[in-house]
Design brief:
Number of helices: 4
Protein name: Transmembrane protein 14C
Distance between the termini: 9 Å
Organism: Lasius platythorax
Helix content: over 70%
Order of helices and strands: HHHH
Number of domains: 1
Main location: membrane
Keywords: Membrane, Transmembrane, Transmembrane helix
Strand content: under 5%
Structural class: mainly alpha
Pfam family, one: Tmemb_14
Largest sheet: none
Length: 108
């Protein structure tokens, strides 16, 4: 199976956002949440790289993170970071569901 590069990039963006939040404002909760969610998303990306129908971890984590950040965006109206992560999560949810229902990729 080919490597699921968009899923790994999403995981790296979430983890990187947590690190950036810590560097800019010394926010330990931002660091912890970013690294926790980024690690879980990385594991989910690894699973989908092995089998494109094994989407439970990636889909569940994307949905939870998207819901949490969407709620924060709704209450604060701040695009960064809540709005960006909510949009990335929504895009990843749509991509994951679409990929799940598409025909399997053929390997050589």
């Amino acid at each position: 199976m080919p490597i699921d590069i968009p899923a790994f990039a999403y995981a790296a963006a979430v983890a990187g956002g947590g690190i950036l939040g810590y560097v800019k404002s010394s926010s330990i909760p931002s660091l912890a949440a970013g690294l926790l969610f980024g690690s879980i998303l990385g594991y989910g990306a690894y699973q989908t790289s092995q089998d494109q129908t094994n989407v439970a971890v990636l889909l569940g984590t994307s949905t939870a993170l998207g819901g949490l950040m969407g709620y924060r965006f709704y209450n604060s109206g701040k695009i960064m970071p809540a709005g960006v992560i909510a949009m990335l999560s929504a895009a990843m949810i749509i991509r994951t569901v679409t990929r799940y229902f598409s025909p399997p990729l053929k390997t050589q």
